[in-house]
Amino acid sequence: EKTQKAERWLSNIASRTSMTREDLDEKSKQWVLSSTFITENVPPGRYRWVQENFDTPTKRRIEMVTIDGRRYRKVDKGPWEEVGLTTALNSSAGVSGGVSGGVSNGVSVGDRSAPRISSTARLIEQTTIDIRNVTVYEIRTVSTPAVDDLKVSSRTVRYWLRDDGMLLKKIEEFEAADKKPTRRVTTLYDYDNIKIDAPAVVKKENN
User: Fold this and answer.
1) In the sheet where 15-24 sits, what is the strand order?
2) How close are the terminal C-alpha atoms of the chain, in Å?
3) Cβ–Cβ < 8 Å for 196, 67
4) Bigger pLDDT: 25 vs 130
5) Which residues touch 85 (CB under 8 Å, ≥6 apart)?
6) What is the mean pLDDT of the chain?
7) DSSP-based three-state secondary structure for 102
8) DSSP secondary structure letters along 120-142
9) Rounded to an integer, what distance in angstroms lies between the CA atom of residue 168 and that of residue 164?
10) Which candidate among 22, 71, 146, 207 keeps its CA 20 to 30 Å from the CA of 188?
11) Integer Cα distance of 79 and 200 in angstroms
12) Cα three-residue angle 141-49-86, rounded to 5 degrees
């Protein structure tokens, strides 16, 4: 599938993903910013992510950088710390990919309590962005619990795919059992001018 291939390819190229999560406020019926998550990947061995949470009493920002397995961390406005080595390098595809993976048509087998999961895909439109041809696809996944057919939840994902197979944008929308929207996740993709350097470390974490 084109969308899955595009997401897997992110781990092989220099890329940046900017993800924004919004939750629906029940009273105001407005989308409220919950968190942002930026990941950068420059293979081989260079990785960076920044997460900011807005749905907690105190806003929190965490930044991590990995250079050839050596990790650095900064929390809010504090100093950079070297926090040790990692044997498994992360990739942007591991963080933001896999949205449409693991979905199968029909009924799950081997567990009578497992939900029935089905998915449908369709072409939405073909358009032009920055003089490039872009195709918009939609994948809708529906989960029906085996014990209660009324508690159906769903996830709808739209992908903006450039003519060279690269992802430009993705929007996920989630609906609860009562068919009310609960969460929206928007991800933007960039492939230009991405550079990751080791930060100036002020202290090392004590082991």
Assistant:
1) 116-129, 132-144, 153-162, 167-175, 181-190, 15-24, 31-42, 46-53, 60-67, 70-75, 81-85, 203-204
2) 45
3) yes
4) 130
5) 69, 70, 71
6) 80
7) coil
8) EEEEEEEEEETTEEEEEEEEEEE
9) 11
10) 71
11) 9
12) 105
Cα gap 13→5, rounded to integer Å: 13
Residue 103: helix, strand or coil by DSSP? coil
Distance between CA atoms of residues 66 and 197, nearest Å: 9
Tokens matching residue 77: 């406005």
DSSP state string for 64-96: EEEETTEEEEEETTS--EEEEE-SS---HHHHH
- Helix or strand (DSSP H, E) at 4: helix 2-9
Q: Which helix (H) or strand (E) holds 63?
A: strand 60-67
Token readout for 105 is 């048509």
Determine phi and psi for 5, rounding to 5 degrees.
-60, -40
> What share of the chain has pLDDT > 70, as a percent?
76
Which residue is it, tokens 């919950």? 34
Residue 136 in tokens: 């918009």
Task: Give the tens place of pLDDT for each residue, 62-88.
Answer: 999 999 889 999 999 899 999 877 654
DSSP 115: P
Q: Is the confidence at residue 11, as pLDDT, over 90?
A: no
